Amino acid sequence: MKIIQCADLHIDSKKFTKFTPEKRALKRHQMLQNFVDMVDFAEKNKISAILICGDMFDESKVLKKSLKTVQEAILSHPNIMFFYIWGNHDEGFEIFDVKPANFVVFGREFAKFEMQNVCVGGISFQRQIPSSFYEKVEFDKDKFNILMMHGPVDAGDKYSEPVQLKKLDHKNIDYLALGHIHKRDEGKIDSRGKWAFCGCLESASFSYLGKDFGFYVLNIENGKMTRKFVPFAKYYYQSVEIDVSNVKNTSDVFAIVNQKTTNFGLNDIVRIVFVGKRKEGEEINKNMIVEKYANQFFFLEILDETKMIFDLERYAKETLSLKAEFIKNVMADETLTEEEKQQICIAGLEALKGEEISL
User: Fold this and answer.
1) Looking at the domain that runs over 236-308, which CATH code has it been given?
2) What is the dihedral of CA 326, 327, 329, 332, to 10 degrees?
3) Where are the domains of the chain?
4) pTM value?
5) CATH no., domain 2-231
6) In what order do the strands lie in the sheet with 49-53?
7) Which band of pLDDT confidence, cut at 50, 70 and 90, is reported for residue 158?
8) pLDDT at site 323
């Protein structure tokens, strides 16, 4: 039996505010299309079930056309079982008023569903796991048992209480299919079972970079499981850091950008971060860089995190200057170390010039 584990689709996400309206609509549509394409993949590869481990939608209010697309994908594949738990984004959401036979939702109480020698169990919870849950978890030791949950393991976060792996020890769980963390991770529950995050089908922010996004295909035969990761994203978030400390002109900047982004293309959402130190008056023309490279990527963002170097001695020699008086007063303060004086002078000059203070 083959089963897909997916999670955190975040359909109808509103995070893409920096994109143009056209590209924002395209990115949101692609995240919806990913689900449809995954179901088609399941049909072609004779997948028996799809585990949706929470946060299928980005919030409880979903566009009617998005909901209709999801419903049609499920209803048009009656030979595939769909198992769904809510996440912290779509908690309590109902896809169907009357659930079709091939769609199972695990609510706020632990429940199980059997398919031949495989048993799928799950629970949806609103940030806090019911205290009675761990006591109620029970599986037949002679079956291959899968438990679906949505939340971090061992250490919690502001969105969800952690899944306590120690309390799942010796519960006859073979595989704990988890959602919530947007990157792949795995570990052991006990001598019998393991847990795994499959990540998300496609990243929605620069917090998760690269191409390692998709779903797992679990192949269960004779009580044993093998697992394969299937990359499935269309758009990839990429971030590169460029040190401009020794860069002399814009042409040199372009040359470094060319080198750093040579493997990126129209499906990449790119962030270029400039770091290092630059002398006063040496500005990075972000608009020129965006104009040159914007059409080479799906989206381009430039961040300037460089620090400006000031000639403190030159400022101190100025007459009738607020900057000079400020520096003289700081340098004359005997309670400060030389390093502290330097930091305070630089921070003050940055503030006077309208720069972001680096102190």
Assistant:
1) 3.30.110
2) 180
3) 2-231, 236-308, 310-352
4) 0.84
5) 3.60.21.10
6) 103-105, 81-85, 49-53, 2-6, 214-221, 224-231
7) confident
8) 76
Q: How far is CA 128 from CA 147, 150, 271, in A?
A: 17, 11, 36
HEC secondary structure over 263-313: CCCCCEEEEEEEECEEECCCCCCHHHHHHHHHHHCCEEEEEECCEEECCHH
Q: What percent of the chain has pLDDT over 90?
A: 64
pLDDT tens per residue across span 69-105: 999 999 999 999 999 999 988 888 889 888 899 999 9
Hey, what amino acid is at 135? E
- What is the per-residue pLDDT across 96-123, written as a single tens digit (0 to 9) for each? 888 899 999 999 899 999 998 999 999 9
Q: How confident is the model at residue 311 (pLDDT cuts 50, 70, 90)?
A: low
Sheet containing strand 184-188, edge to edge, reads: 111-115, 118-122, 144-150, 175-179, 194-198, 184-188
The position carrying tokens 């430039």 is 302
Contact, 198 vs 226, CB < 8 A? no
Length of the chain measured in residues: 359
58 neighbors 32 (Cβ within 8 angstroms): no
By CB atoms closer than 10 A (0-12, 13-18, 19+), residue 347 is middle
Distance CA(168)–CA(135), nearest Å, equals: 9
Alpha helices in the chain (DSSP H): 21-44, 64-75, 133-136, 250-260, 286-293, 312-316, 322-331, 338-352
**What's the CA gap between 141 and 205, in Å, rounded?**
41
Per-residue pLDDT tens over the stretch 191-226: 999 999 999 999 999 999 999 999 999 999 999 999
Distance CA 262, CA 238 (A): 12
What is the Cα–Cα distance from 124 to 172, expressed in whole angstroms? 20
